[in-house]
From TrEMBL:
The chain crosses the membrane at residues 47-67, 79-97, 134-153, 181-200, 207-225, 253-273, 338-363, 375-395. Residues 221-351 form the O-antigen ligase-related domain. Its main location: membrane. InterPro entries: O-antigen_ligase-rel_domated (IPR007016). The lineage of its organism: Bacteria, Pseudomonadati, Thermodesulfobacteriota, Desulfuromonadia, Geobacterales. It is found in: Membrane. Keywords: Membrane, Transmembrane, Transmembrane helix. This is O-antigen ligase-related domain-containing protein. It is a multi-pass membrane protein.
Length: 443
């Protein structure tokens, strides 16, 4: 069993020697499998397979971009912000190495952020055409078969792999992964790829393909429901609202809302979904009615945040500015993680990065409401929701996925058009100065 992850890593390296683009696709494909081998017993020379991939992928891609004439870190308007942001992370790394006296922990900390930096450029630099984009989506869909298969085995067929108890005695089936967050990530990744593939590449009648995407989407949605995650439910709601609002499908929004309200009223004592939601959000409802202490909100995270902020206020001034030399991946809040780990300066840059990119994505959606632009906005919303109670900035796979597609949306894909949109070739003939043909705006 221990040979499997290292065989996959070797496969990635072989493909990198052949073609960087193919190696990236291999990395996307194997990551859901590699993430199953997170335990120390699978480590080689003290490094786990997950850490090997988190190091090799960004390092090799970075080297390729730096050494290639066809790729660059400076094409995007956000390049400077990203470069400054990743440079500041070096201060946190140095503090961990010097104050904490742990070089491996410092390297681990830096590469978590470095995956986000490379993630922003990885898809936009290597998948520029319509055909390349199509292959990228297909590979993401194929990568979803492993996590979805685990869910089917546990949640539908009744098999047992690994479970964990959560609020109200509910039990999450999380497959071979470290936590439910990882499984949820791959479900949303599959949904995103399916939505984009359906939007751009399923014109005409393709019954089998449409049926397969519907089945995969249904399993992914059901898995997210069975994970019993507050953030997961909020992200699903956010995705629905953003997609139908940006795509101007207001009638469908109203119809969905009406169906949900009617179902809640008519079947309020029979719907298991309503009982589940009531259990998942019981602490929050209790706090609203004064029956629960605020410290217990979000599974005790509020209390943890208060303690962390008190510790921050007691730090020396220089540590409040540049960080305290610890990674704080257990902060359960990405903004708090940035504040404690990189100080006020690091948090300020993080907020600037999110604000600048988020604003551009929002403007792009307003001007050109293409599916890819819409998905970028959905992913930004997901990041913000997860950042409130989790630490997405500490998950390499999450960052490659989110920043990869956001960066691709900002850059644009040549020749990409959805039904009813103007294609690149037509735009070139009618409006020589227009960039609407990509379905996107340049960044």
């Amino acid at each position: 069993m221990i040979l499997l992850p290292y065989s996959l890593l070797l496969l990635f390296l072989v493909f990198f020697l052949i073609d960087t683009k193919k190696a990236i696709l291999v990395a996307v494909m194997i990551r859901p499998v590699i993430d199953c081998f997170y335990e120390a017993k699978y480590a080689f020379a003290g490094i786990k397979p997950t850490e090997f991939l988190g190091f090799l992928l960004p390092t090799l891609v970075c080297a390729k971009i730096l050494l290639s004439r066809n790729h660059s870190f400076t094409r995007s308007k956000f390049s400077f912000l990203w470069i400054v942001f990743i440079f500041v992370q070096l201060f946190g790394t140095v503090l961990i190495v010097t104050v904490g006296d742990d070089a491996m922990l410092g390297l681990n900390y830096y590469y978590r952020a470095f995956n986000g930096f490379i993630g922003f450029f990885i898809f936009q630099e290597f998948f520029k055409s319509r055909d390349e984009f199509r292959v990228l989506l297909l590979v993401h869909l194929a990568a979803g078969l492993v996590p979805l298969g685990m869910s089917v085995y546990q949640n539908i067929l009744g098999g047992t792999i690994r479970s964990e108890a959560t609020i109200g005695g509910l039990v999450r089936n999380i497959g071979f992964y470290h936590d439910a967050y990882t499984l949820r990530l791959y479900c949303f990744q599959t949904l995103a790829a399916g939505i984009l593939y359906w939007s751009y590449f399923l014109s005409g009648i393709k019954f089998l393909t449409r049926s397969l995407l519907v089945v995969m989407g249904g399993i992914a949605g059901f898995t997210i429901y069975k994970i019993f995650s507050k953030a997961g439910y909020l992200v699903l709601l956010e995705w629905l609202m953003v997609w139908y609002t940006v795509q101007r499908k207001f009638v469908k929004i109203a119809a969905i809302a009406l169906v949900m309200v009617c179902a809640a009223v008519v079947f309020q004592e029979k719907l298991v979904v309503l009982e589940t939601l009531d259990t998942v959000y019981s602490k929050e409802v209790g706090a609203f009615h004064g029956k629960e202490k605020s410290d217990r909100l979000f599974q005790g995270r509020v209390g943890t945040w208060k303690v962390a902020m008190k510790e921050y206020s007691e730090l020396p001034l220089y540590m409040q500015i540049v960080g305290d030399g610890s990674p704080h991946t257990g902060a359960h809040n990405d903004f708090l993680r940035a504040l404690l780990g990189t100080g006020f300066v690091g948090l300020f840059l993080y907020l600037m990065l999110l604000g600048a990119i988020g604003w551009r994505v929002l403007l792009n959606c307003w001007r050109v409401p293409s599916p890819l632009n819409t998905m970028a906005l959905m992913l930004m919303g997901m990041w913000l929701i997860d950042a409130m109670g989790l630490v997405p900035g500490a998950y390499p796979g999450y960052q490659i996925f989110v920043w990869g597609f956001v960066g691709l949306a900002l850059r644009g894909v040549e020749g990409l058009s959805a039904p009813g949109e103007v294609t690149l070739e037509i735009a070139a003939e009618t409006e020589p100065q227009s960039t609407l043909g990509r379905g996107e705006l340049p960044c």
